[in-house]
Design goal:
With 762 residues, this protein is an alpha/beta fold. It is built from 22 helices and 26 strands. The N terminus is likely disordered. Keywords: Hydrolase. This is Glycoside hydrolase family 3 N-terminal domain-containing protein.
């Protein structure tokens, strides 16, 4: 861990308040001996806007050139923490050269619904995968002396009314799904900053939520850095500082600074709280300036090559019937169809949009590998057409079909235009534009060797196109080098190894949050609870088009010899993986766990480990995956803490969530987690405690002629089932005397002490 600067502040209250708000759109203030620092967007590239032309929330104004790396979705599809670390190091180098001290990323919000407009900025529908990759990003970036800003904290899963809506979510899904990735990154990587989100959480604005920003983030997780607001998220600066917010962005022209000083003078806010916030901002600024390397230079070609490697590893081969891929150049001619082949869609719109140093054009890259004379092109459709639009130019369709018919193979580029998905709004559907589907069907009728290449940010419904393509290659939004990466995979220079980080549903109506998205009356009810993504489809036994973790290769792999070992640290999973095909390739070994006969509602299986493994043709290797014990825990709502449940765990190892190759069982000892008895506990709960049962069981039995009899007086009644849920206090009241509450409390105290249960608040 980097040693933090701890110089004391010699500032007045007014100066401390000023330190806690922005000095400009992308900078803090220089106050006293505390320097100003620059903070810019940077999830997939350094977005240093040209301040001579102003700045904005949505990235509409131009920015200085930088490498546009693949978006978070594609980086997640690499399932490669080491690669994420390398990309983040490159981002750190570019940030240093640009004079940037903090990059506003990574985004680790869950992909609760595929329509969410900002999903391309987030990694996955799974908190484990997200947490591991985001930790690698933070560690890589901060190794270069540039701070990360973990965002958007928290439960920020829709763009609709994002400034005002409340995410209404129960304790277990909040902890197990929506906060878990944040927790992992804070504990494993200690980002310099955490950015709170616009939305409310269970009615409380994130920027004013002391439970979130102080009790959980700092108290439970040990966060040491500064909490800053999303741009414009602060309504009440006094309430925000009281909650634990340190830095309001952007500049507020002094209004909120004055309100903070007034609150201290009036006694509404302690001077120490303002001082603590200022100290954290000062520590951040001094740390960043001490790490600054203004003479940093970087090689644009080298970073472009890294972007191409990252894109290639993140491409997912979804389908490959009859091994139509990889293509062989000598087997041309080749038809390339679709406007995205010449005007590539390679990144998302909004604040993360990067002015790329260069853009690989897919058609040019394909011609470079296949030969100029063997490749012909037809646009086929208009990329900006509305999703439900019919083909508006029969000549475009006819030209594309004729080209496909006289070619050996057709590669058709489909997807969504930037106007159809971006920050600031959610998608109305997950459909491909109708014009594109009509084109695909027409091409496939004359050319069965049709390969589809998809460019998009959020998940698309692919069921309508699967039967009309021999192969489907999903490239998401793969950054400036996407064109070269696609060509590399199409022609086998790179063996595809990407795996989906999000389930592809059969239809939107099957998705977990369908009836609760995007919410109404400024409230979003997280009614699906724990069951987002593959968790939902598994427990509901729903068919999906492609499952979480799915991805094909040009080679094949065999799994064998599973061995499971439990310890105080967790579970060690060992197996052998062999490359049984004709090419070298990378396999992603995925480990899922479930608990048979769990005492709580929980998913059938959850991702708890993975390991990328590179194998040459014919090579076999032992693979080891460590599952942390803490990752097996669930949030115990009665005890308000994490608990590992004891029992038999099923461990499945496979190539996707629905391609489990090996399965084993392992008995684990659970945490000691007795729930304390209170007068509000039920009779059944009391009788489960041996001390309480010995002293109170006779009383309960006497009232009903004996609880030991399964049938009561020939009436066909099971008395314990009838009264078992009755709270002890109510039961005693119904007796009209006898044992008093104080006497019962004494018995419950001794019963709790016997099993080590500690009542809340004691």
């Amino acid at each position: 861990m980097t040693t933090q600067h701890t110089e004391p502040l010699q500032l007045t209250t007014e100066e401390q308040a000023a330190l806690g708000s922005g000095g400009g759109f992308t900078s803090t203030k220089a106050v006293g001996d505390v320097p100003a620092i620059t903070l810019v967007d940077g999830s997939a590239g350094v977005r240093m806007q040209d301040m001579s032309q102003g700045a904005d929330h949505l990235g509409l104004r131009p920015a200085l050139p930088a490498t546009a790396f693949p978006c978070a979705t594609v980086m997640a599809q690499t399932w490669n923490p080491e690669l994420v670390h390398r990309v983040a190091r490159a981002l750190g180098t570019e940030a240093q050269a640009a004079g940037v001290q903090v990059l506003l990323g990574p985004g680790v919000n869950m992909k609760r619904d595929p329509r969410a407009g900002r999903n391309f900025e987030y990694y996955s529908e799974d908190p484990y995968l997200t947490g591991v990759l985001a930790s690698a990003y933070v560690q890589g970036l901060q190794s270069q002396g540039v701070g990360a800003s973990l965002k958007h904290f928290a439960a920020n899963n829709t763009e609709h009314e994002r400034f005002r809506s409340s995410s209404d979510v129960d304790a277990r899904p909040l902890r197990e799904i929506y906060l878990r990735a944040f927790q992992r990154v804070v504990r494993d990587a200690q980002p310099w900053t955490v950015m709170c989100s616009y939305n409310r959480i269970n009615g409380v604005p994130a920027a004013e939520d002391r439970w979130l920003l102080t009790d959980v983030l700092r108290g439970e997780w040990g966060f040491e850095g500064a909490v800053l607001s999303d741009w414009g998220a602060v309504d009440d600066r006094v309430a925000s500082v009281r909650a634990g917010l340190d830095l309001e962005m952007p500049a507020d022209r002094g209004k909120h600074d004055r309100a903070l000083v007034h609150a201290v003078l009036a006694g509404y806010l302690s001077a120490r709280q303002v001082e603590q916030a200022a100290e954290r901002v000062a520590r951040l600024a001094r740390r960043a300036k001490a790490a600054a390397r203004p003479d940093t230079r970087w090689d644009a070609d080298e970073h472009h090559a890294l972007a191409r490697d990252a894109a290639a590893q993140g491409l997912v081969l979804l389908k490959n019937d009859d091994a139509v891929l990889p293509l062989v150049a000598a087997e041309g001619p080749l038809a390339v169809i679709g406007e995205f082949a010449v005007k590539p869609r390679c990144q998302g719109g909004g604040s993360s949009y990067v002015t790329a140093t260069r853009i690989d054009v897919p058609l040019d890259e394909i011609r470079a590998l296949a030969g100029e004379a063997l490749v012909e092109y037809a646009p086929g459709f208009t990329a900006d057409a509305a999703a439900d639009a019919a083909p508006d130019d029969p000549a475009l369709l006819r030209e594309a079909v004729e080209l496909a018919a006289r070619s050996r193979t057709a590669v058709i580029f489909l997807g969504l235009a930037g106007s159809q998905e971006a920050e600031g709004f959610d998608r109305a559907s997950i459909e491909l534009p109708q014009e594109q589907l009509e084109l695909l069907r027409a091409v496939h009728r004359v050319q069965p060797r049709t390969v589809v290449v998809l460019a998009h940010g959020g998940v698309l419904r692919l069921a309508p196109l699967i039967d009309h393509a021999a192969a489907v290659l999903d490239c998401g939004l793969s950054g400036q080098a996407a064109g070269g990466a696609v060509a590399d995979v199409l022609f086998g220079r790179v063996n595809p190894s990407g795996r989906l980080a999000e389930t592809v549903p059969e239809r939107i109506e099957s998705t977990p949050a369908f009836l609760n998205f995007p919410g109404e009356n400024l409230h979003v009810r997280y009614g699906e609870g724990l069951f987002i993504g593959y968790r939902w489809y598994d427990v509901r036994k729903l068919e999906v088009t492609f499952p979480f973790g799915h991805g094909l290769s040009y080679t094949t792999f065999r799994y064998s010899d599973l061995v499971l070992e439990g310890s105080a640290e967790g579970v060690t999973v060992r197996l052998r993986v062999a490359n049984t095909g004709s090419r070298a390739g990378r396999e992603i070994v995925q480990v899922y766990t479930g608990v048979a006969g769990s005492t709580v509602v929980r998913p059938e299986q959850e991702l708890k480990g993975f390991a990328p493994v590179w194998l040459e043709r014919g090579e076999e290797r032992e693979v080891t995956v460590q599952v942390r014990r803490e990752d097996l825990a669930y949030w115990h709502t009665a005890l308000d803490r994490w608990v590992v449940e004891g029992g038999e765990y099923t461990v499945g190892v496979g190539a996707s969530s629905r391609d489990i190759r090996l399965t084993g069982q392992l008995a684990l000892t659970g945490d000691h987690a007795p729930v304390p008895l209170t007068p509000g506990s039920s009779i059944t709960e009391v009788l489960a405690n041996p001390v309480a049962a010995a002293e109170l069981g006779e009383l309960f039995g006497a009232a009903f002629g004996g609880l030991g009899d399964s049938q009561a007086a020939g009436m066909g009644l099971d008395i314990l089932k009838m009264i078992g849920s009755t709270p002890v206090q109510r039961f005693l009241t119904s007796l009209g005397g006898g044992m008093g509450l104080a006497q019962v409390q004494d018995i419950l105290d001794r019963a709790n002490a016997a099993v080590g249960a500690v009542p809340n608040g004691r």
